[in-house]
Amino acid sequence: MSTMERILLALETQGAGGESVLGSIKIAVMPILKVFTMCALGLLMASKYVDILPASGRKLLNGLVFTLLLPCLIFSQLGQAVTLEKMLDWWFIPVNVVLSSIAGSLIGFVVATIIRPPYPFFKFTIVQIGIGNIGNVPLVLISALCRDQSNPFGEYEKCSTDGTAYISFGQWVGAIILYTYVFHMLAPPPEGTFDIDSACVPLKNTSMSDASPAQAPLLANEEGITSTAPNTSKKWKIKDFFAFLYEKLKLKQILQPPIIASILAMVLGAVPFLKKLIFTPDAPLFFFTDSCMILGEAMIPCILLALGGNLIDGPGSSKLGFRTTAAIIFGRLLLVPPVGLGIVTLADKLGFLPPDDKMFRFVLLLQHSMPTSVLAGAVANLRGCGRDAAAVLFWVHIFAVFSMAGWIILYLNILF
Predict the structure, then answer these.
(1) Which of 117, 133, 326, 352 could form a disulfide with 121 if both were Cys (CB 3.0 to 4.6 A apart)?
(2) What pLDDT does 328 receive?
(3) 3-state secondary structure of 271
(4) pTM for this one?
(5) Which regions form coiled coils (predicted)?
(6) Which one-letter DSSP state was computed for residue 20?
(7) List of domains in the chain
């Protein structure tokens, strides 16, 4: 028997889960190839040769996905799957998101300390390694995986509904982390801008002046109430207090459409009467849920086309340099997942996870294995380092095609 024949025979032997090695590779790689193909088509559509997805078109498509299609998918899938008992059983999903961010940030701190990224990108490096994509990419992967008839998680309907529900249940925590921790970490340096070489005016003065119109009326109103109207009714003071709290906690940034959809789905799905009224197939208001399901199905292709189109601007003139970019890719895709595997394994040993739910464990593992969050790139854009974030997102997503395939193969062999 030749060496090649022995290799093929070894690959075709049944593993512990009943799947051959080649079968496991097919199950893991096919969803990645589907994602890569649709992203490549988006990149082609945005290229100068076709140019039907220019920057303005991608912006509109991203807005449509974020404002309508993704919330519809979350609302319909999470609302149908969730109950009060299940939410109590799923408590480790948001905890896992927090632990993933903490562990990833600690790894990012160690990596940044070793490689010493160019000033002022130390905290930027920590964030790019620490904050993974816990929403869009996992949703796409689960959908592509469930469509494969040989997938080990069962029929498409149950596989997709459960996977989407688990992923959606953790998104609200991810949004809070993004618009609090990440927003704070990506604050501009004392010079006022990440583009140090071309810095002309420090942002400190600009930000103070920019902030004053928003803050001055509130402070002025409070002083006016104190000095000119001491007997003003309490309701106006309460209103001003909540307005101040709303601004300080950045609730406007946190309460984005996907988060609102998640909260609504959890509230309505947890109340049996409302669930029967809206989410069951024979419910009088099921037409609304069904409409959301139809719109939600368009989310996957739209977001992949938009993501592929956005990557066309990625490798631009970043100031990070090859060493820092390579360290971010290595840290995010190769150092964070093993730590996540340890966290999930320990939680399973301690009995924190629902018994015999393979999809639950798979989603937890995926939350540690994803590329850098696209929304972290959006926050970076708000803070003035969007060009460098785009470069990181481009290269991380390119290499994630290979790393995710490897990690998924490992996870499937561990779970089955």
Answers:
(1) 117
(2) 94
(3) coil
(4) 0.72
(5) none
(6) B
(7) 19-190+235-415 (1.20.1530.20)
